[in-house]
Description:
27% of the residues lie in helices and 22% in strands.
Amino acid sequence: MDNTSAQELTQNDFFARNLVQLRSRLEGRVSQQRLADELGLKKSTWAAYESGRAEPRYGDLIKVADFFQVSVDDILRKDLSKEPLNMPKIPELRVLATTVDTQDQENVEFVHVKALGGYAEGYGDIDFIGKLPTFHLPFLARDRKYRAFPYEGESMPPLRDGAVVFGEYIESWESVKNGTICLVVTKNEGVVLKMVYNYLAETGVLVLKSLNERFAPYPVRREDIKELWRFAGFFENKFPA
Length: 241
């Protein structure tokens, strides 16, 4: 154990070392971001835990223990590199077509109205994505992927027709919490903005709900979903009424 005796290690030392070890044993070289998304944590939180810079919160300890099917006590007190474990399988990584600027920073692509109708088919085509206008916004995190879409309709007040909605890419659909507002890209409807209720694990569907009660909730099957983008903000060029 790097010439450090087990007796000299604190619980936080064991926790940090075990997190690095557990992540490294997952199939497919899982990144900090990927695993944090799967557990419903921020990447910065997971990175601080792995480096030993932060004491683990009790709720996060439970999440990690449940995910890796080990006890909280073992995570804090044992060297899990020496333990035989049945590692969980993380759902297959989804590939995102994206563009970068001259400094190799990811752009925010704008799916304008003319491109919106073809997005459900062209979302994975780098030629299609490469033709979209791009920009950067200083208030969006640099370690996340964002895309902008025009909003149409009246199902999600106070947003009005013509607003531009910013979405943060969601890699792990199973991690989406009930009540999260998302841009949902589907095979039949294209891009819709809805409040999401997640039943993917139980029944393989998301239930999409409008904020306008005149619109009834409805289910969307996993196989019909193309992408999910978490609502990250919006822009309107009209003064609020």
